[in-house]
């Protein structure tokens, strides 16, 4: 087996799949048309999907792929579906009433219950095999999940037995109190709800064994691993540790990773003087280093995109392409995702097109900051309604809400009493010099350079309604200070929305991560400076969390 065929249904994870298969040493053939004669020659077929179930199936039908895929399956040759690729093999989904799946598995998907946990499920979870392993699936490993709908088998305990009787082999995962199908196999059809292409070495192994059609026995679980896989203190997920790379050109015109002190990236800005742009290393090389240390996701922020459009910024695209070839955890890219005027042609380029360029280069998610604040203001101007035109809505419609992160850059504003602002206030434990102990968090735009009149609570609510999948919550007062996260801000944000929140700004030592995870219900913690200056590695943070009883992903 030297060639692997991949069906192209405009899925956001297509490039990531291609990267993994090439990394494993196989040739990739992307099948773009249903009548491509290559499809008949395929011996291993991958069906990647992300986003909306209905959108994916309509796309499959409208592009004429349904019957060729069914014919391939009837031929008995191996096929593997990934994420929405798995969901398409089921009967239907609550996400798209009235749209039929391929019906290979006689079961329907439903939305996770969000009354007591964040939805979507974003993060690394363990699996339970029923009854035995296939394609190297390993209960001692964690796999990366990113979805709101699932083939839920619990609490109907008999369901699992019923499915086994049908000859299905499957692995399940528990998110909160809901158990669902994480991977499934019947005859030549194999599929995973998780993203093996983004699950580090454990995921690469699953794809490789599918290509080789091998089923080695998994390792026997050590007693401590059994405890680890039954820890539901974070709904079953590990505590995610994320490394962030702020990227811009330095004074020599080189694209570098930099780091600000309260967003000022020039040397000496922390002591009141101004020097050169801090150069902390090459973006792709640092991304690789953090991946090797065990980072659970990497974010790239194009921090001068308010000045230069990403359309002109081919350097960032090159960085992303290079990192995506060897870094197999989710890659998030932000900066300049908004409708943009192309200066050369005078044409308005929609945010969706800019995002697509990043997805095609290997990004799994895009992060929107300034434009999300503007979209929130518009949302309230429309009386809490959406007009479908914002970048958040357009991108989440095309690529799924899991692909849209909203990055927020708030700053504390003190007031005498809550009535002094229309925005949501908190009573803080840290009054300002004037003794004011009420404050709200004003959302800034253009990398903290411009103030607005809207608060973080209001932007969070609006962005959730517009379809954002996750929030990256910075804090201008804390950025680069190494003094710990703003716990009050995190608590406020977690009260506002159900979608997951990534804490950012202020981490200076591993214990700051523990503090954020214990004192708040935040879903992930991100840091930049403490990793870039070499004080600590990602592994140091994970060791510290683990010693303090918090489950983390460690590659075996
Ligand atoms: O507005 O959609 O074009 O996006 C611009 C993006 O670039 C935003 O997400 C904004 O946060 C980011 N950005 C713009 N200017 C800066 C700057 O620093 N001058 N970075 C900037 C903001 C915040 C985080 C940082 C954390 C952790 N930096 O990226 O990594 O605060 O830092 P720490 O652990 O060292 O404290 P758009």
TrEMBL record:
What residues form the catalytic site here? 83, 195, 197, 246, 409
Q: In which pathway is this protein known to take part?
A: Amino-acid biosynthesis; L-histidine biosynthesis; L-histidine from 5-phospho-alpha-D-ribose 1-diphosphate: step 5/9
Q: Which UniProt keywords apply?
A: Amino-acid biosynthesis, Glutamine amidotransferase, Histidine biosynthesis, Hydrolase, Lyase, Multifunctional enzyme
GO terms assigned for molecular function: glutaminase activity; imidazoleglycerol-phosphate synthase activity; lyase activity
Matches recorded under InterPro entries: Aldolase_TIM, Class_I_gatase-like, GATASE, His_biosynth, HisF, IGPS_HisA/HisF, IGPS_HisHF, Imidazole-glycPsynth_HisH
Domain of life the protein comes from: Eukaryota
Quote the catalytic activity from the record.
5-[(5-phospho-1-deoxy-D-ribulos-1-ylimino)methylamino]-1-(5-phospho-beta-D-ribosyl)imidazole-4-carboxamide + L-glutamine = D-erythro-1-(imidazol-4-yl)glycerol 3-phosphate + 5-amino-1-(5-phospho-beta-D-ribosyl)imidazole-4-carboxamide + L-glutamate + H(+); L-glutamine + H2O = L-glutamate + NH4(+)
**Pfam name, any one:** His_biosynth
CDD domains, per this entry? GATase1_IGP_Synthase (cd01748), HisF (cd04731)
Query: Record keywords: Cytoplasm included?
Result: no
Q: What is its EC number?
A: 3.5.1.2
A Gene Ontology biological process noted in the UniProt record is:
L-histidine biosynthetic process
Ranges where the Glutamine amidotransferase domain occurs: 6-208
- Identify its protein family: In the C-terminal section; belongs to the HisA/HisF family.
Q: What does this protein do?
A: IGPS catalyzes the conversion of PRFAR and glutamine to IGP, AICAR and glutamate. The glutaminase domain produces the ammonia necessary for the cyclase domain to produce IGP and AICAR from PRFAR. The ammonia is channeled to the active site of the cyclase domain.
What name does the UniProt record give this protein?
Imidazole glycerol phosphate synthase hisHF
């Amino acid at each position: 087996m030297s060639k692997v065929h991949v069906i192209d249904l405009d899925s956001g994870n297509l490039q990531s799949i291609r990267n993994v298969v090439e990394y494993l040493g196989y040739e990739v053939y992307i099948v773009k048309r249903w009548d491509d004669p290559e499809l008949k020659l395929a011996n291993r077929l991958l069906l990647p999907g992300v986003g909306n179930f209905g959108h994916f199936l309509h796309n499959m039908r409208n592009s004429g792929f349904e019957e060729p895929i069914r014919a391939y399956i009837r031929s008995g040759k191996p096929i593997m579906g990934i994420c929405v690729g798995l969901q398409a093999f089921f009967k239907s989904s609550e996400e798209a009433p009235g749209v039929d799946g391929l019906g290979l598995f006689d079961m329907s998907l439903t939305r996770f219950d969000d009354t007591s946990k964040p939805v979507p499920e974003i993060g690394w979870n363990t699996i339970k095999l029923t009854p035995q392993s296939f394609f190297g699936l390993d209960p001692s490993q964690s796999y990366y999940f990113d979805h709101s709908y699932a083939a839920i088998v619990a609490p109907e305990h008999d369901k699992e037995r019923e499915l086994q009787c049908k000859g299905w082999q499957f692995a399940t995962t528990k998110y909160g109190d809901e158990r669902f199908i994480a991977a499934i196999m019947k005859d030549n059809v194999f599929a995973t709800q998780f993203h093996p292409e983004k699950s580090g070495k454990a995921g690469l192994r699953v794809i490789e064994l599918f290509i080789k059609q091998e089923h080695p026995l998994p390792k026997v679980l050590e007693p401590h691993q059994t405890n680890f896989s039954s820890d539901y203190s974070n709904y079953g997920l590990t505590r995610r540790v994320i490394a962030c790379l702020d990227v811009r050109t330095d004074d020599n015109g080189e694209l570098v990773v930099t780091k600000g002190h309260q967003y000022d990236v020039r040397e000496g800005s922390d002591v009141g003087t101004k020097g050169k742009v801090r150069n902390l290393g090459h973006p792709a090389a640092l991304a690789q280093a953090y991946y090797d240390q065990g980072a659970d996701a990497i974010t790239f922020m194009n921090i001068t995109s308010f000045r230069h459009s990403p359309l002109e910024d081919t350097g960032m695209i090159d960085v992303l392409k290079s990192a995506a070839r060897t870094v197999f955890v989710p890659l998030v890219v932000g900066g300049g995702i908004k409708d943009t005027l192309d200066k050369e042609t005078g044409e308005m380029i929609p945010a969706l097109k800019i995002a697509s360029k990043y997805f095609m280069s290997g990004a799994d998610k895009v992060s929107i900051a300034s434009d999300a604040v503007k979209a929130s203001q518009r949302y309230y101007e429309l009386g809490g309604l959406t007009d479908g035109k914002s970048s958040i809505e357009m991108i989440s419609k095309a690529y799924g809400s899991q692909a849209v992160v909203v990055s927020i850059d708030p700053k504390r504003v003190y007031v005498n009493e809550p009535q002094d602002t229309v925005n949501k206030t908190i009573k803080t434990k840290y009054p300002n010099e004037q003794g004011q102990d009420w404050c709200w968090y004003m959302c800034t735009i253009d990398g903290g350079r411009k103030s607005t009149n809207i608060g973080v609570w209001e932007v969070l609510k609006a962005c959730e309604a517009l379809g954002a999948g996750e929030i990256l919550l910075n804090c201008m007062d804390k950025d680069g200070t190494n003094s710990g996260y703003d716990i009050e801000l995190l608590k406020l944000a977690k009260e506002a929305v159900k979608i997951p929140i990534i804490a950012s700004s202020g981490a200076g030592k591993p214990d700051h991560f523990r503090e954020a995870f214990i004192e708040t219900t935040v879903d992930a913690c991100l840091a930049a400076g403490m990793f870039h200056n070499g004080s600590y590695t990602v592994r140091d943070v994970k060791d510290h969390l683990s010693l303090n009883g918090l489950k983390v992903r460690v590659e075996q």
